[in-house]
């Protein structure tokens, strides 16, 4: 039996392959036709937001393979679902949750989190690539998610109100604009700043006191040559709540392994310190081990 996700992918793919424009441009075109009612996939009445997100995601992944660019990468679903679970637990019992993704790309990670939190959640997405923003915007409309988009360098000044939770699959590498980087505490005394360091600082600037930042980071973040600058910043400006190591099996090269860093912006009156959760995600195909791990996360979030 063909699933709704497969039907949506086939609907987009058939159109994209029948045109002469770039696959990703064609994906935007057919999604806009879907929105207008001009053409629609033959999905069942029980189609969910996750069905829609995954169907579009499959098409976007195919399009990215046909036109590879360094900044066109998507957070793996397994990691996105885990980030969604964590964010959902941090948001539990709260109303009117606001999110920020300062490196939103196609919005896939952001929408995975929004689908998990489900009710009464709004978001802001920052992305410098116009094509990715257009993909993200049409997806947000199909998912009926209220998202505000800014097409800009996220490390420039942002006119964004502080949010409850910032999430980001951090762009890794050097930030070339040294003049702008001088506005950040994490600009090193010599050489270029790491973009992923600056994204952490920028994200926490735009997170409410008591709010959280949930970041996908290089596994060696605290062992790099600029970590002596990062350590004092995190100690002064944030509370480290958790460092969660992702399985090496998720990455083709162990050198590119990632972890999840969870920070909290301190409340001015709060003096209590908490233990840092240090954990390693088990093999994600082991359902029993993953259930125990998620239970551990739930207990940690509750405490």
From TrEMBL:
The keyword Cell membrane is annotated on this UniProt entry: no
Domain YtxK-like N-terminal helical: 8-64
Source domain of life: Bacteria
Domain DNA methylase adenine-specific positions: 75-288
UniProt-listed InterPro entries: DNA_methylase_A-5, DNA_Protect_Modify, S-AdoMet-dep_Ade-MeTrfase_prd, SAM-dependent_MTases_sf, YtxK-like_N
Pfam family, one: N6_Mtase
The keyword Methyltransferase belongs to this UniProt entry's keyword annotation: yes
SUPFAM superfamilies linked to this entry: S-adenosyl-L-methionine-dependent methyltransferases
Gene3D superfamilies: Vaccinia Virus protein VP39
GO MF annotation list: site-specific DNA-methyltransferase (adenine-specific) activity
One GO-annotated biological process of the protein: methylation
Entry EC no(s): 2.1.1.72
Keyword line: Methyltransferase, Transferase
Range of residues in the leader sequence: none
Listed name of the protein: Site-specific DNA-methyltransferase (Adenine-specific)
């Amino acid at each position: 039996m063909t699933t709704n996700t497969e039907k949506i992918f086939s609907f987009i793919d058939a159109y994209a392959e029948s045109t002469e424009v770039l696959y990703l441009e064609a994906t935007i075109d057919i999604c806009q036709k879907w929105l207008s009612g001009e053409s629609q996939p033959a999905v069942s009445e029980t189609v969910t937001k996750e069905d829609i997100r995954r169907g579009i995601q499959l098409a976007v992944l195919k399009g990215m393979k046909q036109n590879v660019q360094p900044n066109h990468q998507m957070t793996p679903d397994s990691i996105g679902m885990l980030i969604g679970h964590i964010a959902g637990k941090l948001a539990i019992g709260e109303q009117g949750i606001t999110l920020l993704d300062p490196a939103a790309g196609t919005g896939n990670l952001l929408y995975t989190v929004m689908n998990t939190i489900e009710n009464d959640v709004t978001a802001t997405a920052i992305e410098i690539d116009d094509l990715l923003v257009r993909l993200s915007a049409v997806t947000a409309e199909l998912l009926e998610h209220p998202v505000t988009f800014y097409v800009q360098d996220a490390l420039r000044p942002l006119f964004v109100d502080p949010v409850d939770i910032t999430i980001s699959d951090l762009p890794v590498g050097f930030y070339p604009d040294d003049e702008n980087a001088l506005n950040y505490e994490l600009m090193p005394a010599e050489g270029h700043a790491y973009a992923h360091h600056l994204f952490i600082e920028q994200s926490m600037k735009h997170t409410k006191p008591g709010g959280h930042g949930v970041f996908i980071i290089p596994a060696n973040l605290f062992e790099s040559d600029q970590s002596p600058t990062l350590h004092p910043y995190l100690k002064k400006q944030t509370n480290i709540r958790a460092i969660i190591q992702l399985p090496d099996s998720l990455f083709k090269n162990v050198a590119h392994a990632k972890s999840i860093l969870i920070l909290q912006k301190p409340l001015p009156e709060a003096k209590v310190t908490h233990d840092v959760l240090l954990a390693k995600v088990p093999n994600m195909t082991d359902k029993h081990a993953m259930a125990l791990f998620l239970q551990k996360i739930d207990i940690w979030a509750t405490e």
